[in-house]
Specification:
elongated; 7 helices; 13-stranded mixed sheet
């Protein structure tokens, strides 16, 4: 069979002789079956309008949005934001409290804006605001401090245990965990503890142990003993004495078979550790061992 018979047959261009020859060929039967099957195939319907709409929607869905902003408006907005931040920062930093703290084995003297003097004992902290100090003299205290207050408006010391209010005087405030003591050395001090208000004249003090109030007289001195490098105690639980020893010398104190609730009366040096250890252990007839930064107090019968 000639090669162009198939094309002519499909286009109905064969002559009678050519058609007769093509039908007698071996390939004719196969071509006849293919042609019959192809006549049964149908092309899918194609909606041109729907195809265009789908293309248009997909094109605009991925189109990036462009926001136009005038340069002048943009700069004005940035400048306004900077101005607001500046004003907020000014008032924030201007109102921040001034904070002074002391580490263990250190003391520090602080002169307040009105020339009042505060001596911070070891392991203590005060904070106050310089802004409007002349109108409102308020100090927050953690630990112990001796105050020499210049005359003026009301002076208030706030602690976690209570508040102390004066006009111009000298007094000492100590607030530790479970312990609160206020001693007046000059003038008059008002102490507020929960719903209790106490007036302390010079030479008196108030001591509070875990909510129990004890009022007593104090020796008339110019300042508390710790300002003169001694720590004094009168009927104070032994654990508070040991805590003060840790603060004054920045050491760790450990006890073995010692009654730390027992009351202690005495004094120890804040500048001579060996003498301090002897002063603490002798009244109780207990022993101690000092190694590195740790002191062990133990009963003598303990092996």
């Amino acid at each position: 069979m000639q090669e162009n018979y198939l094309a002519k047959w499909l286009n109905n261009e064969l002559s009678e002789e050519e058609l007769k020859e093509f039908k007698n060929s071996e390939e004719y039967a196969s071509y006849q079956r293919i042609l019959a099957a192809s006549d049964q195939l149908e092309a899918p319907e194609f909606d041109t309008d729907m195809a265009w709409k789908d293309f248009h929607d997909r094109r605009h869905a991925h189109k990036p949005k462009v926001v136009k902003m005038r340069p002048i408006q943009k700069m004005m907005r940035i400048a306004a934001a900077i101005a607001v931040l500046f004003v907020i920062s000014y008032f924030y930093f201007d109102s921040l409290n001034e904070t002074i703290s002391t580490q263990y084995a250190h003391r520090e003297t602080v002169i307040l804006p009105d020339a009042s003097e505060v001596i911070l004992n070891a392991g203590s902290e005060i904070s106050f605001s310089k802004k409007g100090w002349d109108q409102q003299r308020n100090i927050e205290l953690e630990g112990e401090a001796f105050f020499k207050v210049a005359e003026g408006k009301k002076f208030t010391v706030s602690t976690a245990a209570g508040t102390v209010t004066v006009l111009g005087t000298q007094f000492n405030v100590e607030q530790r965990d479970g312990f609160f003591e206020v001693s007046c050395y000059e003038g008059l001090v008002r102490v507020n503890f929960k719903e209790l208000e106490t007036q302390l004249p010079a030479g008196s003090s108030i001591v509070i142990f875990n909510g129990t109030v004890v009022e007593e007289k104090v020796a008339i001195n110019e300042s508390p003993s710790w300002v003169k490098d001694e720590s004094s105690f009168k009927s104070i639980p032994f654990k508070f004495v040991l805590n003060e020893l840790e603060r004054q010398y920045d050491i760790e104190v450990v006890t073995d078979n010692i009654d730390t609730v027992r009351l202690f009366t005495g004094t120890f040096s804040n500048t001579n550790l060996k003498l301090a250890l002897e002063s603490i252990s002798a009244p109780y007839q207990i022993s101690y061992k000092f190694e590195g930064d740790q002191v062990l107090f133990y009963a003598e019968e303990t092996p």
